Amino acid sequence: MQNKYLQIYKEIADQIQGGGFEPGSKLPSEHDLVERFQTSRETIRKALSQLAQNGFIQKVQGKGSIVLDARKFDFPVSGLVSFTELADMLGGNAVTEVEKLALIHPDSSLQGALQAAPDSFIWEVHRIREIDGERIIFDKDFFKKMYVDNLTEEICRGSIYDYIENELGMAISFARKEITVEAPTEEDRNYLDLEGYETVVVVKNFVYFDDASLFQYTESRHRPDKFKFVDFARRTKA
Amino acid sequence: MQNKYLQIYKEIADQIQGGGFEPGSKLPSEHDLVERFQTSRETIRKALSQLAQNGFIQKVQGKGSIVLDARKFDFPVSGLVSFTELADMLGGNAVTEVEKLALIHPDSSLQGALQAAPDSFIWEVHRIREIDGERIIFDKDFFKKMYVDNLTEEICRGSIYDYIENELGMAISFARKEITVEAPTEEDRNYLDLEGYETVVVVKNFVYFDDASLFQYTESRHRPDKFKFVDFARRTKA
DNA sequence: AAGTGGTCTAGACCACCTA
DNA sequence: AGGTGGTCTAGACCACTTC
To answer: What is the pLDDT of residue B77?
Structure first.
């Protein structure tokens, strides 16, 4: 069993994605949905609120809920999808090489970024993401060891997020991203196939757990021609 | 008068920003807030839900609501803040020059982007954003004329968003952004002080109204060294 | 066991849109 | 006037954390 409002959310979301509701048409009214799902209006409204937040519908007061074209927004509806996963999805022949996997003590800048003590242990992971044989993305990850006890190359080759959420059962709650463009460092030139590009796109990622503790700091360094970031922002009401 | 839950939201948000609640400490429990604000629990929960979505607090089941460090997240809490406004905020001496303001018919690619008919009228606006005397950002905006009847250079020099939302009273509801890095066009070289940079950061913006109609397409072209994008994504529950 | 937030209910009234 | 979504209420029960 599950939350009722999430069940309703999923059922309607599936129906929209499956073409059961035409884009531009209107969803049944909240009153109708109350009857159809045999529940209270507030529960229906929670489900619709989630649908609106995730880009499936648009609620308009006095009119109804308009079905949006979900296929247009098939990208990372949640901004929490990691870019590396995105690259994997797009690239086809994606390969990850783990160049470094070490336990370190944080230097002063890392202490600030991770809010970690100087004598604490931090995992440092360097990964190269290859797409179709070209080294496109260089990921530097820093995790607090207190949260993740053992980390293997095998885990790093996959999605560390998946490992944490599914294997360790910890919920990642929110992330702050900063995107800038910088000149490549020596490291970038060694790790990436820059092909003459004199810039890299740097995505800094601060990842927090459900209890608001900072867990991870990641720097993802991209060759500029293969970089694409998609954001879907909406004004949310309660 | 106003929504009760928004009033409560604002009062608590102000208190957090003003230092009335220490980061890391806990907010009063929902039950306490019910008594303090003389309202129902669901209303308190709506206010707290907004606070959580906007990065002021983090709710943890069974424990309480943790106050986050709002000063760390002082940037575009809503992803809908326009980059130009951001640049204005940061830059100090920001100047906007309107290079073009014309009514056009959309070409085929614009017809697709704006979902507009070939014989409809579209405003085309070119604006250069100067910061401290350097031409840093080149904005190309396309608006459907049916929504905005008269547009002046004066309006374009300020924030077109403000004009639409406050003067015209239309609510911008959500936006989709795409960020890529491209080689500069001739136009970019003419309009911007590129100073040898061989890339520009291109932010494409699709802006929708409350009723889900697409209204505006913007391309914001940035000199790479001055570009910074900040995103704050959170997993939201109802 | 007590306290916290998470879900759910049944009903009320309001604001907005369409007719 | 009737339908729609937006807000608000008072109460219930559940899940999780802390003691």
So the answer is: 40
